[in-house]
Amino acid sequence: MSKEKIIMGIDPGTTIMGFGIIKVTGRTMTFVQMNELLLNKYKDPFTKLKLIYERTIELIDTYNPDEIAIEAPFFGKNVQSMLKLGRAQGVAMAAGLSRQIPITEYFPKKIKMAITGNGNASKEQVAKMLQSILNLKTLPKNLDSTDGLAAAVCHFYNEGRLETGKGYSGWASFVKQNEDRIK
């Protein structure tokens, strides 16, 4: 009998945060859930971070993922946007790490490449490909949830490969792999 595994994907954001969950049985993946956390109505950045943490913990406690795949912040020109995005990602990672769930980080181009074969694909192209791969009947209005789902599917496709991104199995692992950034 094939072992089942749940993979949760996260597309961090402080306006909209996307989540996607798949179940893997052997080499077969099935769609479980995708959703988003809408944060644009909250002005206080700390309230947003609290809600990101609470929603991530709620999803973890509901679906019991074995692994989490998270989209890494891309390097843009707006430093303030990158800082906000990094905080959102960090809070989501902290939620997973607090439950001892291994986390792997993927750059956006790697996720797009895994799903569409094109590292420069648009959000719409990624969503349409996921719709085809996972037999989704409809797509959400906002594509942040499909971006979260794409992170989970990317992780499934990259399983067993040496270069999957940065993986963390707990706080000690995170600190050890990021010592140069911490000092």
Can you describe this structure?
With 183 residues, the protein is of the alpha/beta class. It is built from seven helices and six strands; from the N terminus they run E-E-E-H-E-H-E-H-H-H-E-H-H. The protein has helices at residues 45-63, 79-98, 108-116, 123-133, 144-158, 171-177, 179-182; strands at residues 4-11, 16-25, 28-38, 67-71, 103-106, 166-168. It has a six-stranded mixed sheet with strand order 3-2-1-4-5-6. The radius of gyration is 15 Å and the shape is globular. The model has no long low-confidence stretch (mean pLDDT 88).
Keywords:
alpha/beta, 6-stranded mixed sheet
- Count of helical stretches: 7
Largest beta sheet: strand ordering: 3-2-1-4-5-6
Number of strand segments: 6
Proportion in helices: 40-55%
Class derived from helix and strand content: alpha/beta
The average pLDDT score comes to: 88
Reading the helices and strands in chain order gives: EEEHEHEHHHEHH
Biggest sheet layout: 6 strands, mixed
Distance N terminus to C terminus?
Answer: 47 Å
Residue runs with pLDDT of under 50 for 5 or more positions: none
Based on CA atoms alone, the radius of gyration comes out at 15 Å
Given the C-alpha coordinates, what overall shape results?
A: globular
Strand-residue proportion: 15-25%
Task: Note the topology.
Elements: E1 4-11, E2 16-25, E3 28-38, H1 45-63, E4 67-71, H2 79-98, E5 103-106, H3 108-116, H4 123-133, H5 144-158, E6 166-168, H6 171-177, H7 179-182
Parallel strand pairs: 1-4, 4-5
Antiparallel strand pairs: 1-2, 2-3, 5-6
Helix pairs in contact: 1-2, 3-5, 4-5
